[in-house]
Design brief:
heterotrimer, A alpha/beta (247), B mainly alpha (310), C mainly alpha (287), A: 247 residues, alpha/beta, four-stranded antiparallel sheet, 10 strands, C: 287 residues, mainly alpha, two-stranded antiparallel sheet, 11 helices, 2 strands
Amino acid sequence: MTTAVEVESLVKEFGGLRAVDHVSLRVPAGERRVLIGPNGAGKTTLFHCVTGTLAPTAGRVALFGRDVTRLPEYRRTALGMGRTFQISNVIADLTCAENVMLAAVGTSPRKWVLHRPMGTFGDVRRTAEANLDLVGLAARAEDPVRRLSYGERRQLELALALTARPRVLFLDEPCAGLSPSERARISRLIAGLSRDLTLLMIEHDMDVALGLADRVTVLHRGRVILEGAPGEVQRNPEVREVYFGHV
Amino acid sequence: MTRGRLAAGAALAAAALLLPSVAGPFWMGLVTQMLVFGLLALSVDLLLGHAGLFSICHGSFFAVAAYTVAILQVRYGVSTLPAAAAGLAAGTLLGLVFGLAVRTRGVYFILITIAFGYVVWGVAHRWSSFTGGDNGVTNVPFPALGGLRVESHTEYYYLTLAVVALVALGYRVVIRSPFGLALRGIRGSETRMRTLGFDSNRHLYAAFVLSAALASLAGVMYVYYNRFVNPVAASFPVSVEAALMAIVGGSGTIIGPFLGSVIILGLRNWVSSFFELYAAVMGIVFIVAVLWVPEGLVGLAARARRRSQA
Amino acid sequence: MTTSAILQAINGTSLAALLFLVASGFTVTFGLMRVVNMAYGAYYLLGGYVGLSIMRATGSFALAVVGGGAAVVVAGYLIDRFLIHYTGENHLAQVLLTVGIAFVIGDLALKIWGGDSLKVPVPMALRGAMELPGGLVYPAFRFVLIFFGAAVAGALWLLYTRTQIGAVVRAGVDDREQVAATGIDVDRLFVMVSAVASFLAGMAGVVGGAFLTLYPGAEWEILIVALVVVIVGGLGSLGGAMIGALVVGLLDAYGRWLLPEFSYFVLFGPMAVLLLFRPQGIAGREA
């Protein structure tokens, strides 16, 4: 059984503040792991360190057995990492199609081509259209992202993460800020993803989290306080206290 | 390409080709100058309008190329083709060095390019034994390729026009290519692009070097037009004006920098004929452009068109 | 040989004093207000010329220095309030706008004071030379300049690190929203800091005009060297401006002495090194 993501004793400090405090994780390939915890627990910071957006203060990160601790994000993407951001991070000045086409060439030498217009790469175009269709944005392909609603941008965010055919997907609160119907749609999309894809997801909404997860890791104040099956975590008193105050 | 655009393009091309038959040498010279500086503005806009980097040192590449051509032709009797090639190479080489600046962003990047540009100006100004100091290098001959020799301003105008047309076509391909799209992506969200697999620093460096090469080409065209070069070509005002031309004409487009060049150079020519404080007037143009017309002429036209369609 | 080296050290330090005066205003203005003001060189020139006129009219150097500074405070305030204010945090717009303003000031100065190189007369009390150990004779004014620069630097540093206002400014440089949230009148703070910065630049012009002379183009030369100081020292850092000024001043003096034709390369060197290893400058925050 290959380990998709291995985090060993990760620490991240900002000045005097320790946002991530010796967190260790092991996610086997194909598993769907959900990270939960109250605000400020260090979930997003942990993600940033694992995906390469931030450099950890101490500790080790490995993707598919390969030590990536000091590797910049774009190299991790080349190894099969895909990720979405908590706050939609899409390229507003470009169209949806252009966004996804960039995602399609991001890990290929094609990104260096300057003697042919992007439009002449038919396969890139088709990949873009397919991925937009998958997330339900086919009709908005030619629209500038600026004109998209928040919910649609979340959909695009997911399309971008999926386009380069990642082996492990990091989703940071994919349903944040969405209406119930939009949430349901995104949840369905995620649930429908292939089991070959390892999923590591931060989710605030307990229902969504517990519905999608194989295993749950609970973070509180930068530390892992519990890890287990969804039902187990839901029933645990310490978790309930952390989330809902004194029961 | 819409029919309206095609018609406008054809009209422009016709006007450009017929210009010499209606205009005297003064206007020919002015239009040639507008084309050359438009090329410089275009090089700045590759970075500004697409990669989102505001560089104020492109006068350095422009001047280094011009000086290289001038010194080779005048002092060493080198013929046009190798001299021009050397000029291009010299400016581009400087671009490879100054490209270090892309390790910074935002204000730092702007300040560093300003400082770099200043260093080149300083060297041109002080290394008088080589560059001729403030007097510069004079008596640059017209270009000659084998048996063909440019004999007049009119012929040089056509040569410049041809070069500009070819560059514009090439530029169009580049900005629509995956590379060009990647630059705009990086400008939009560098973190997103890096997560998609792009090494943003490398892309920006490549764009910087490419724009330096384009600025060098402008420098080569400049020195053959002007027949002389001095440290002013590397000065801060030249670099900053090139950026202004791109903005006033319409950053992010191909015609914008050239339109900007026409406006700025035309305005300067007109004002200086009756008002000695024309630098102050140019300063006011900067102020007005920034506060009231930030999207440039092309942007204004687009806005007007949208309003008429609404 | 060593006496020349010492001479250059003094030259460099006196230039550093001047550079610090111009650079400190620029760096704190950026650090606190996120404003890039490329007209600081023109402020220097304006202050210098106004000081010169005052000197010619009254013969008082002190009055010239204060007057030059005051003139720039007024001009600076008007420019901030009616022009720069509208650029928000758009640095590109600020650069272009303030460059335009500098062009206007420069051209007006040319019209009023002419194109010749003008020197602000050094007051009688500060003229003459000092004799140093080793038989070295050096203009007394330069020493005065160094002490003056050190005094201003010291005063600024004290203000910045030991007073409440300084603490507020430092907090503001780190996090503007935080400062605004504490209820402090941020606008008034900005005006005050701007005024101090403008005063320093104008004052620098009068003092600089006494040993470097004033001429069209001087505004760009002083600005750009001050920018190198700010880059080397880190944007927003007062301490960095001090260190940067010393580094650049000394490099410039030794550069001009040892490699006169390539002295500008000497300025390029440290910047290139810094870019390779520490892009955010000596004391600045992450770029």
